[in-house]
Amino acid sequence: MEGSGEEFLKYRSPLVSRYASKEMAFNFSDKKKFTIWRTLWIFLAKAEKVLGLPITDAQVSEMEAHVEDIDFAMAAEEERKLRHDVMAHVHTFANCCPTAAPIIHLGATSCYVGDNTDLIMLRDGFDILLPKLARVIDRLANFADKYADLPTLGFTHYQPAQLTTVGKRACLWLQDLLMDMRNLQRARDDLRFRGVKGTTGTQASFLQLFQGDHDKVEQLDRMVTEMAGFKKSYLVTGQTYSRKVDIDSLSVLASLGATVHKICTDIRLLANLKEIEEPFEKEQIGSSAMPYKRNPMRAERCCSLARHLMALVSDPLQTASVQWLERTLDDSANRRISLPESFLTADIILSTLQNITEGLVVYPKVIERHIRYELPFMATENIIMAMVKAGGNRQDCHEKIRVLSQQAAAVVKQEGGDNDLLARVQADPYFTPILNQLDTLLDPKTFIGRAPQQVARFLAEEVKPVLEPYKSKMDVKIELEL
């Protein structure tokens, strides 16, 4: 097609082309992947040299000089011939490192570079996500603090219930996000390195290289693990690290997806009530046919992508369940998709949610109108108690209120009118003893219990300590590409 770029002639994942951050897209890029492969071959050579194998400084230096100049075209051609991605890159690396060629990948199996690189990418992926999650928590905590004592209708079964506050409701969202923060940190910290384990995990090839010296094989494993930035390696593996590790990683991301879906669904429901809205640009169009609409498209995007994130965890669950004996290769193609997509999707969701929480708009007058509409019904028990204190009979008062409430409900439901229960109470001589108390009895702040106090304590004791390690990373703002 005339004037079309090559990239428009084939499918491009919208996770990268449309949504993902540059850092997360790079984390799972070919450039990073194969650079890590070469770095791991260097680590292996360095450790083997230190432990006595005939490897020279010149060979190591040559490898280090060519870590990043990857000839991707050559690697692709080699893979077409060999049908083996690792050997294709061994040959490509050896081509620019002729002196080091004999010792590249010495004693290793493909999973030495493949699995160890995946573990590095998982670790680095969590390190990208954790500050982003911290920023979402920080923005939402500021929102909760600002609206800690603003009364609003609570809902159970999406029916009006007792009052809460806008800030207290935000703390329900925050509590789930704090659980996700804990889960992501745990999954990140639990990651170990596969290390140097050989073809079926027995380290037989390395034991042979070191002429039966078990201590040197263990030292080799430990040295490479430390060079890669891990504190521990898995003591036992098959050809691969256990695919349950992938379940752990993707499970916590799926759980984060559930949290974000719930938060953004709540925001969408509140947007329908016109109580709270996500940011809306001056020139943004909500509908091509209905120009008045302000659709919650950011929250909708989060929900849409969160469903994908939650679905992806089924991949590692099924993969781990069918890894026969020491391994089968039916994990490979699946993991190339499910691992990067989970992190890319979580990354997009958190960036979008940060943008939402930085610009949430609250409409107190609308919230107040909704409260006025429902509060007379909720205040009936307060009215009864006040009448009893004024000398009335509880049963008589209950019957009076019951009749007046049903009359007011009929006006609302059958005639489409406003709730006139308060006017009916004021017009009934029976309630004369407490008419001067009605304003106090109907003050919304008397219906929110300890919500403001709960918010203050929760933010101080639960949120603040979690955010402390991320203080230096709080200033990043998100501008969404819409």
What would the keywords be for this entry?
mainly alpha
The pLDDT mean sits at 92
How large a portion of the residues is in β-strands, by DSSP E?
A: under 5%
Structural class comes to mainly alpha
Q: What's the N-to-C terminus distance?
A: 26 Å
Give me the strand/helix succession.
HHHHHHHEEHHHHEHHHEHHHHHH
The number of strands is: 4
Number of helices: 20
**What does the largest sheet look like?**
2 strands, antiparallel
Shape verdict: elongated
Q: From the alpha-carbon coordinates, what is the Rg to the nearest angstrom? A: 31 Å
Question: How are the strands ordered across the major sheet?
Answer: 1-2
What are the low-pLDDT stretches, counting only 5+ consecutive residues below 50?
284-292
Helix content: 55-70%
